[in-house]
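I'll show an entry:

:::
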Amino acid sequence: METKTVKRSDERMDSFEQIHFKFLFLIVFLWFLMASLGKFLIAPQSSINQNFWKEAVTQTNSLVPYLFMRV
């Protein structure tokens, strides 16, 4: 008896969704990078623990997965 694996569309992302995710991640990352860079330039004393790059990556990683959640 031969078993066949069924790829469900809700379990795996197709190539369009992967491109969409990467594009959206890039846009959101650039938005947070500009915001944190502006904050760093305006008030450089306030960012003691993280630099502007780490802050942008952290904020992007916390937002983007919620955009692709399926309810």
Remarks:
- The radius of gyration is 18 Å.
- Residues 24 and 34 are 15 Å apart (CA to CA).
- Residues 15-42 form the longest helix (28 residues).
- The chain has a mean pLDDT of 76.
